[in-house]
Amino acid sequence: MDHLYSVFGYDVAPYHRHFLEDGASNVISSLSNNNILAFTSNFDLLDDSEENCLLKTRLYVVDLNLPYHPYRYVTHSVKDHDENITVLEWDNKGAKLLIGDDMGTIEVWSMRDFLLSDWQRLDHHSCCFAGDRIIAGIWFHSGQKIMVNYDKKDLDVQYQEKFNHDRLQASVVQFGNKHTDGYLCITGSGFVYAHLFGSNGKIHQEYAILNSSRANIEQIDVAYLKNGSFLVMTSNGNSHMPIHCYTISISLNWIENQTQKLKIDCKSHESFNMDCALLNSSNQSTHIYPIVSRLKFIVRECPDAAVVVGSGKNGSIIELWELCAVTVSFNNVIKNLKKIDQNQPITEQRWKFNMNTTSSHYVSALSTPGSLLFETTPPLSYIMVAYTDKTIKCFYRQNLQSLVTVDLTTTTNHSGLNNSTNMNRMFHQQEMISEKLSIIRDIRLTWSNCAMVAIDSFSQLHFFRLSPMIEPCNQMSLNFAQLMLEYALISGNDYWDILISIKPQFVDIICEKITENFCGSRQPSYVQQKWFDKVLQLKAALYRCVNSGAASYKSGDYYAMKMLNAIAETIKRLIRAREYQENEGPAEKLSSMIQTKPVSNTDIQQFINIDKVLVKLDSKDFCVEAAIQQSFQHLLQWVCDLALYLLASIPQQCHQPQFRIPGSGLLFDVKSLNTLRELLVIIRFWSLINANYVPSFNKMHENIDVISLIYKLLSKLVLSSEKIDETIIDECCVLPNQVMIHQMDICLKSVGMASPALFSHSLPLILHFGIESPSLEYTVKVPIIEGTFNIHGDRRIDVLRNISLGYVDENTNELIRSCTRCNSVSSIKSTTRSPAARAWDQQWVKKCVCGGSWRVHASKNLSSISNNNDFGQINFSLMSTTV
Length: 883
What we know:
25% strand; alpha+beta; disordered C terminus; 38 strands; five-stranded mixed β-sheet; Methylamine Dehydrogenase, Chain H; 2 domains
C-alpha cells in the first residue's frame, strides 16, 4: 500500500481540535465510479478567517485527480446546514447525489450543465421526515452487472468471453421489464421510504415499517440481493442484543383506474448474535465489548458475509460472519404429509461465525468494496479498518489475514537533505504535519479496489494505492493492468485509479497488449466499431502520463485520430441523398472510392487528383445550407491545418530518425489518411457552393490550389509503402514556401496527479486545499517544424470548436470551462445557433475529449501561492510502504 498524497487544510484551533477528535466530527463521504469524491466538513476548507463557523455542515465534491480543488457549490440546502449529514450516496452512473441528515431531510442533487463546480437540487425528488434521523440510503440497482471471467482474465480473447454480463434482477421494473431509477431510505426508528423516478416525470412514493413495530436503530447497512431485493442488517448498539436482518422488496403494481402504485414488502431474515457476547467463561467478563460500533457487508452486490465491530474498555473486536446454506432435516411425519424429493435437500440460509481479530484501539472507520468484479467463491475482498491511533490496516477476507498496516504519523528522512539547515527545516515540516494529522473518520475504495481515500476528523484527504486483490502483496502486473483497463472500457467506469498505478516505462507494453487484443480478428467488427474511439481515448490518457520524448507524443496521435474521426462522422451525417438509395448513400460512395486503390498508371493519376474524384460524384448530394457550412468552418480549418502540419514535418522526420512530433503517427495510418482525403473532397464540394465558409490559407502565390495540393500529397502517402518516397519528401520540403503553415498544439497536457510529475517526486505529496502545488508542474517540449509559424501565441484555443478564446484565464473567467484531467478549455456558450453545431457540442457536453469532467474554476476557489507558505515547499515522504 503506497501513500500517494495527503491534502491538508488550514490550522484548526485547539478547542475545535479536541471537540472534533472526541467524536463530534461526523465526517462521511461517497466515491462515484467517475472517481469523484463527495465529503462533508465541519468548517470551510478554503477559509482561514476567525468567522469560519464550526457548527455548520458543508458538503464538498472533488475530483481525486485535483484533490486540492474542492467545490462547495453542493450545499445541503441553499445555505450551510445546521444539522449533521448522515447519508451520502452516489447513484450508479455518478450523476446524482443522495443526501440525508439528522432531522430527516432527504435531498437529491445533480450537476447543472454537467459542471463539477455547479450543482442543483432536484426539489421534486426530495422529502422530509421531521425529526426522524436518516441512517441509511441506497439507490435502486439497474440489474446490469459486468463480471470478469476469472479463468480467462489473463487471456487475449473476445470481450464477450472475458467479461460476462451477469444479469441481476433490477430493484424495481416497469412495463417491459425495464429498470427504474429511485432510492430507498431508512430512518433511525425503522421507517422505510421508497422513492421512484417514474416515466413521463411521474413520481411514486411509498412508506413502510422495517419490523412489526418501530424500534431504535443505531447501526445499519444495506446491500443488494440477486433477486432484486435489499438485505438490511441492523443493531441497536448493544452487543448482547441480536443483530437483526431483513429483506425489502419493492414492486410497481397496477391498481384501479389504470394507475401504478409502489409497494414495499419487508420480511424478517436470519439474525445472529455477536460471538463475543456469547462467551461463558467464568474467567472472562462478558462485558468487554458491550457496544456494536460498526456493521458492514463484505461486498454490497454480494452480501454473503458481513463484518461486525464491537467496542469496549479493552479496545475493539472485528468479527467476520458468513451467510451459508444449511440443509434442513425434517421429521418423517412431515415428509409423509408432503412429498419431498430425497435427492434435492431443502436448505436455508444461516449466519455462521468465521473468526475475529482484536485491537487495543477503537475502530474509527471501516470500508469494504461496493462492487463485485470477479466470479470467485468466496468473493475476493479487502477490509480496510482505521483505528484511533491513526493507523490503517488492510485485511484480506480469507481468515481476516492482515496484509499491511500504515501509520500516518510515521515520517522518514528525506534523502536529498544533507546540510543542517535543510535538516532543521525538514524536522520543522514534519512537526507541522504531525500536528495537522487527525483520526480517520471514513474510508472509501475505488470501483477497481486498486486505491482508497481516507478522510480524517478535519476533512483532510489521504490517498493510497493498493495491490490488486487477485495479487495481494504484489505490485500491479501488466496483465492485471490490461484487464482493468479493458473492464473500464466495457463498463464505462473511470480508469484514473488504474493510470496512477502504471509506471511510465510499462505504458508502451500495455498499449501494445490492448491494441493486439482489440484489433485484428479477436474482436468482432461491431465491437471494434463501438469501442474504437474509447480505445483511442484510453491510449491517449496512458501516454499523457509519460514525459520521455517520442513516447509522450503518441498521446497527440490518438487525440488527433479521435477528433478527426468525430469530425468526419459528424460531417458525413449532414450529407443526405436527394433520392432514396437502397445500397449506399453519397457518404458511403465517397468512402468506397477513397479506399479503392488504383491498379494502372491511369488510375493512379485519377487517385491523386481531387477534381477527378469530384467528376464521379453528384455535387447536389453534397449540398448543405450556408449556416451549416459556417458552423463547421473552424473544424474544417483544423482538418486542413493538421494535414499541412503533418506534411511539413515529413522532411525532418525522414532525415532525422529521432525527430518526432505529436500526431506524426497519422502519416503511417492509412485509415486516418483516407479520412483526411474524404474531408478534403467534401471541403472542395462546399467551396463550389459558397467559398466564404471554407478554410482559408495565406498563400505565397495566388495560383496555388492548396486543397488539391494537400489531397495529392496525402494520396501519394497512401500509395507509398512503409518508407516514404523521396519525391514526396521533396514536395513537402517546398510546402512552407507555398503556403503559411501553423504550429499546432495537439498534445493535450495532463494536469493533477495522473501526470508525469507523480513519478518524479518522493511520495507522498503534501498538498493544501486551494493551492496548486509546484511539485505537480512539468513541461512538455514539442519540436518545432522548420517553416511553421505560431500564430496563436499564448492565446487559449477552444479544444472543441478550434476557435481562439483570447488571453483568458480559466481561473477568473466564469464563461470558460476547463477539464479536470488535461489542460483543455472550452467556452460554455456556443458561438452559433445552428442545430448541426449544437449536435456537435452535445457530444462533449458531459465529458472533455480526454474523458475528464468539466468545471468552472473561479478565482475565489483558488489561493495564490506564497513563497512563505510552507505547504508550497514541503516535499518529503510520510510513508512509503509497499504491499
